[in-house]
Amino acid sequence: xxxxxxxxxxxxxxxxxxxxxxxxxxxxxxxxxxxxxxxxxxxxxxxxxxxxxxxxxxxxxxxxxxxxxxxxxxxxxxxxxxxxxxxxxxxxxxxxxxxxxxxxxxxxxxxxxxxxxxxxxxxxxxxxxxxxxxxxxxxxxxxxxxxxxxxxxxxxxxxxxxxxxxxxxxxxxxxxxxxxxxxxxxxxxxxxxxxxxxxxxxxxxxxxxxxxxxxxxxxxxxxxxxxxxxxxxxxxxxxxxxxxxxxxxxxxxxxxxxxxxxxxxxxxxxxxxxxxxxxxxxxxxxxxxxxxxxxxxxxxxxxxxxxxxxxxxxxxxxxxxxxxxxxxxxxxxxxxxxxxxxxxxxxxxxxxxxxxxxxxxxxxxxxxxxxxxxxxxxxxxxxxxxxxxxxxxxxxxxxxxxxxxxxxxxxxxxxxxxxxxxxxxxxxxxxxxxxxxxxxxxxxxxxxxxxxxx
Length: 454
What we know:
Elements (H helix, E strand, L loop, with lengths): L13 H12 L7 H24 L4 E6 L4 E9 L4 E16 H7 L15 E15 L6 E12 L5 E13 L5 H18 L3 H12 L1 E2 L4 E2 L3 E8 L6 H13 L1 H12 L6 H20 L2 H7 L6 H4 L20 H10 L21 H10 L4 H9 L3 E5 L5 H18 L2 E4 L9 H6 L3 E4 L14
Antiparallel strand pairs: 1-2, 2-3, 3-4, 4-5, 5-6, 6-9, 7-8, 10-12, 11-12
Helix pairs in contact: 2-6, 4-6
């Protein structure tokens, strides 16, 4: 009588080992990076959702989902809110198996993923990350996108194989406010410089190159940072994890002040129409060029609704649509086609041309009128005050200049404001003959300056 063959038990999968480890020991600073990254992004998701809800006043819908291959995620979406037309904050934790063709492809950037002379038929992998997209209702408030992720393969005994971090954050305005772009980039640069002075210029260029609509010849937005495949060739795992943590934590104190500045600004139907056109360009990039979208949709067991969370609720494609010359819309397109330096250390600041003997006057004005001076200088810097004619000019010459300004006013949809409009009612003759007036572009009405109206 033959002896029965001993039973052979399949070894536990990576997902099963991690589940057991969490149940027995919890997650601490000595846990595998897989578990620490999962814990971190879930904590940040809760904080971000809470902060966005406080801005909007509406609640997110929260969907928890599981993958039969292992892992799952939490997708939080707010639609048709008071401030946000659509906002999504998603966490995914994915366990799976890489087939041999995928391993061969990944070896192009990660030689240590497998021995070139002995490539296995498959490898277990883990991926976790947080993705965020915010599409505000107000066209003056910029869209923002964020993603930070960690990827790791597992050896047959469950020990880590190849690993890397990826991610970034970028801003996509429909109407460009220089101060928003500078603030956004400065915050990101501060995080990068804390870890490595080379990060910001390198990752900024990576972002500009990646978020580029090749078929349109323009950037998707005003950039930020983007990076992928950060592994031991860049730094050790703990330092890279610390960088990713700081970058993700910087989002709320950077973006919330920007959206709060813009969410209640007035806008026209024409400006809303422009927002829809720009959102169409956003959709084009995500569906045509974005590698993350393509990877997600082609992953077995993919949750399509979560992958397409980044899509805006509304967008518009208009045939041969072109912005009017010299308009704010045209300025944005010019910047997207020919990116300008958004760093805080720009050398083209017109205030540098103010004589040193007069600079103290600006400081004095700023102390006396802290809520007025800087926004007013921004109006001048953006060319929204097109012309200033000083009082005391010859009345006949003033009338000629006034007619010229009226013609410019019609061209740029601005308003004519006399320098003496608030002088009282006793000098009507002087007011009619005065050559002192300003041509103020209608876009200035959107400036957040208390008491400034046109």
